[in-house]
Amino acid sequence: MKNYHIYTLYTLIAVLFGMVLYLMNSAGPTPQTFERLGKAQVGEARFTPRVKIFDLPDELDFAGETVPLGDRDIIERLERELYVNAYWESNMLLMMKRSGKFFPEIEKILAKHRIPEDFKYLALIESGLMNVASPAGARGFWQFLEGTAKDYGLEVSKEVDERYHYEKATEAACKYLQKAYARFGNWTSVAASYNIGQAGLSRRMNDQHQPDYYQLLLNEETSRYMFRILAFKEIFENPGKYGFELTRDDMYELPELQALVIKSTVKDLAEWSIKHGSNYKELKNYNPWLRQDELNVKRGKEYIVQLPVK
Length: 310
Known about the structure:
Blueprint: H1 2-26, H2 31-38, E1 61-62, E2 65-66, H3 72-86, H4 89-112, H5 120-127, H6 146-151, H7 166-184, H8 187-196, H9 198-208, H10 220-237, E3 257-262, H11 269-275, H12 280-286, E4 303-308
Antiparallel strand pairs: 1-2, 3-4
C-alpha cells in the first residue's frame, strides 16, 4: 500500500510538470524572444511580420486619367484588390516573370495603334498572359468570344483559332479599344466597357445619369474590374514596396524565333516540324493558334509559324 501511494505521488508530479511545460509553450513567444529573434545574425531565425499594411500612393492614374483617391469608397475598393493580389504571392510572382515574355511585344503593338501602355494590364487581368478558356467561350490573352473575334478580323475555325495568337489578338483588341474610345472619349470607360460591353456601359450611364465610371453602381465584376487593373499597375510599377524583388535575369523570355511560311496543306504537323528542325511540342508551344495536328490551306492563303532558332 505504501508503494502504491509513492507511485501515485510520482504520477501526479509528472502530470503537473507536463502541464506546466504545455502552458509555457502554448503561451507563445515572449517579448524577450522577439528581441532575440530581431537581433539574429545571418543564417539564424529572424522574426518578420507576415502581413503588413501598405501605404497607398498619393496619386494614381490610368492612361493619364486621375483616380479620385479622395473618395473613401474608392480607397476601399482599391485596397481590396491590392491586398488580394499582393498577398497571393505565387500567382503575382509568376505573372511578373511571365510578363517578361509577352509585355515587350504587346507594348509595341499598343504604341503602334496609339493605345495607352496601361492597357497591357487589362490583358494581364483577363488571362494572366495565358491561353485560357472561360466557361462562356472566351479564349486567349484578350479573352475574345468567337463572334467578337471574327468581327475584329481574327480567324476562328476548327484548325485555326487566332484568339490564341497573342500578337494578332492584341491587334484586334486595339481595334476594339479605338472604337470604344470614339464612343466614350475617355480611357477609363473604354477599359470598363471591355468587361461589360459598350452597350452595357452606355445603358448604365444613361439610366443613372452618370458618365463617370467611379460613380456608377455596377455589377460586382465590373465594379472591381478597373481596380484590379489599377492594383496590378501599382504592384508591377512598385514591386519592392509590395515585397517582390525580381531582377531581369528572373524574368521568363521567349527564345529567338524564326518565321516559316506555310502555303500548302500539311497533313501531319508533327512530321512537318521534324523536317524543319523542331518537334510537335515546340510547334504547338509557339503557335498555340494551330488547334489540330493538320493544317488545310486554301488557295491563295498562307500561314506564318514561328519556331526556335537552333
